[in-house]
Each structure stands twice: as C-alpha cells, then as structure tokens.
Specification:
The chain is α/β, with parallel strands linked by helices. It has 20 helices and 8 strands. The protein has an 8-stranded parallel β-barrel with strand order 1-2-3-4-5-6-7-8, surrounded by 6 helices. Helix 6 links the parallel strand 4 and strand 5. The structure holds cobalt (II) ion.
Length: about 475
Amino acid sequence: MGVKIVDTSLRDGHQSLIATRLSTKDILPVAELLDKAGYHALEVWGGATFDACLRFLNEDPWERLDAIRKACPNTKLQMLFRGQNILGYRHYSDEVVEKFVQKSLEHGINIIRIFDALNDLRNLKSAVDATNKYKSQYDGHCQIALSYTTSPVHTIDYYVELAKEVEKMGADSICIKDMAGVLLPSDAYELFSRLKQSVSLPLELHTHCTGGIAEMTVLRAIEAGCDIVDTALSPLSGGTSQPCTESLQYALSGTEYDPKLNLDYLKKACEKLTVVKDAFLKEGKLNPKALTVNPNILKYQVPGGMLSNLMSQLQGQGAMDKYEEVLREIPRVRKDLGYPPLVTPLSQMVGTQAVMNVLFGERYKACPKEIIEYLKGNYGKAPAEVNEDVRKKIIGDAEVITYRPADKIAPEFDAMKEKYGDICKCDEDVLSCALFENVAVKFLEAKYAPKEKDEVVEFNVVIG
Ligand code: CO
C-alpha cells in the first residue's frame, strides 16, 4: 500500500505564504478538483483560517466550511485544533471546547488534528475526549499531533514516550508536527522507525520547507514506515509551506510508496491556484522572502508562519534592518522560557518578545501579556526549567500555578449566549464570539445588519 497524502494548500499553504488570505471564492474551484484526485484528506479549516475569515475577509468561517464540504463529497476534510486553545490564543472552558468539536464535526470535518504547543497532555484531554465522544456520529477521527522541536529535553526518546501516552489517551493516529521545518532527514528516519516499533497507530508527518530539507525528511520518514505525509499543491508549496504534492507524486510514482494521486486533477487545480497566487504576488501580499530557502531557520528554529509575521511586524515598525538580530534573539528567549516548541500561540509570543527585546534595547523591559501569563503557568507546564531571573523580572512574586490551566475556567458558553443573544442567531455564532469576541461581534453586527447599513468594516489586528 502506498503512502497517503494530505493536501494542506487550503489551510497551511496559504497560512504560511500569504497570511491566510485565500477567500472562499478562491478556495472552492480548487477544492472541487482536489476532491477528485485521491487524497487521504484535505486540510481546509482551523489554525488561523477562522480568525482570518472574521478579521480580514469579512467571511463567516462556518459558512466556508459548509461550502467546502459541499464541494468535496469524496474526500475527508481535516482541521487543525489547538487543544484547549481551540483556534484562539488563550485557554477556553471545557464545555466550549466540546461544543466546538461537535459543531466542527457536524459541519463536515472528519479528521481533527489536536495539538498543544507545549505537549502538555492535560491541555489535549477535553478536545480528544469530545472528538471520541462524537466521532462515530459524524465519521470523525481523532488525531493527536506532537509539536516537534529540538532542545536538550526534546529527544527521540521523549517523542517515543509521548507517543505511547497519546495512544493510551485515545488517539486514532499520531502526527509529528514539525512547524518550524527543523526535523533532519536522519532524525526523521530514526524517529519514525522507533515510533513504528512503539505504537500501533497510523503515523503522519507534517513539516515545512523553510530550511530546504523537507523533501529529504519526508522521503526518509516514508522509508521508515510513516503512513501519511502532508504536502501542498505546487503554487502554495515550498518556502515556508509544505513540500509540493505533484513533485512527491512524480518522485514516488511506480514505487512501493506510490500515493496514486490523479495528476490530471492536480494540474487543473494547480492552474486555478496559480491565477490566485499571481494576483497575491502582484499585490505584494506574497513576500518573495517567504518563498526563499532559509537554512538559518535550522539554527534559529523559526516556523514559516512566524517568519512572515515577524517580517510584517518589523516592516510596520520600519525596522527590517533588525531582522537578523531578532532571529538571533529568538533562541535566547526560548531558552529563558524553558524551550517551548515554536508553534502557535507560543511562536507569536516568543517572536513578539524577541522583537521587543531588540527594539527596546533592553531584554524583557516590556512583555506581551501572554508571556506574563505563560510565566505564571497559565499555558501549561514548560518542557524544561524556566530562567528564574527572567521570571522574577517579569512577574515578581506572583503565583505560579501547577494545575491544568483550564481547571479554573468557569463555563463560558451560556454566559456568551446571553450576553450576545441579540447578535447571535445560532450556536455557531456564539462560538465565534467565544473565541474572538471583539472581531466576531463586529462581524456579526455587520452580517445581520439591514442591507442599507452594510459597509466595509476595517479591523485592527493585534497578534501576540
Ligand atoms: Co504547519
């Protein structure tokens, strides 16, 4: 049996290269073609897509999902789900997590890929339990993704032990999520060989081309027994995105790993997506830097999405000349914080802290409030010891919690429903408000306003 392929163009591909700006109008004609190409699944929702719909595109993310589901009757749809953070940047109450899982499945998601930035398994439990509770009703599948990084604590043994634990927790498959694209080919071979011996679940690899090694890494993982790999259609592949789907199909064609994708449909989908990509290039919304191989990330461990965010932060401040300096500061911040893997939301937090440390000319003179919360334990347990001098400088003698952060979060859904009863017409609207209160409320007010009041709403973004 050949290797299975998940196409990420319509989620991670555009999240990594064009700040998640594909509209539903751009997506649907491509999705219809990909649906016929023989994929294991299409990753189309979750991650930053939900926020970007509401904040930048004036689109209802639930309606987008419905439209994609309708356009793809043959293929499983996959979403990325950040454990207790759902699709947002803080922890939500257990019942909001459960409701979001159930509604995602109801609207057509099959595979829910659940991860926690810190690999703190306590932060996955609600989402995993909810997926397992509802999956038979909706043809669902619970995948747990392990955030991959390297550090003195993130060894191959660490990942093997973690994989055994998530198998016990109720995962249907396991993904190694290498957000930064730092998994080396030889390490991938060893890691997947060890995982294959240690767990009985299907294994998947998600990596990024940022450092120029992803294709090699994917091939070595496949040779070691990896069952599923993530790739993106050529126009949204490479650079800070995933390896190219078509190229992998050509490379493996006729071998024992042949994914057997239909290249005619891929070509047609590629043509449609190329027109869209060219428009983004022309408007300057696709920074050519994001498409360039950057071997430095193998040293700094900066994920693709984070690189494009950093560039726009620095451009906004007129400080692009500080780019290399910020890249050098990132690993130092990471060490101070106990080696968190650089995945959302920690990638934005560490990135913003590094930018502040450089621009203020003094380390930790100012901090994003999320870093303060992290140091108080409110994101979960840091993988390694935190630098106590840094912690003291930032939070003083404030309490550091050791229980699961969501334990103290009271149910939120009903309160939200009551608060916005006149704006929300369904539970999906309430969930949008629960996740992104300010932007969702503005969006829904405009959406349901009488026609003559319709106007373009401009949102201000604060990420980090
Ligand atoms: Co990714």
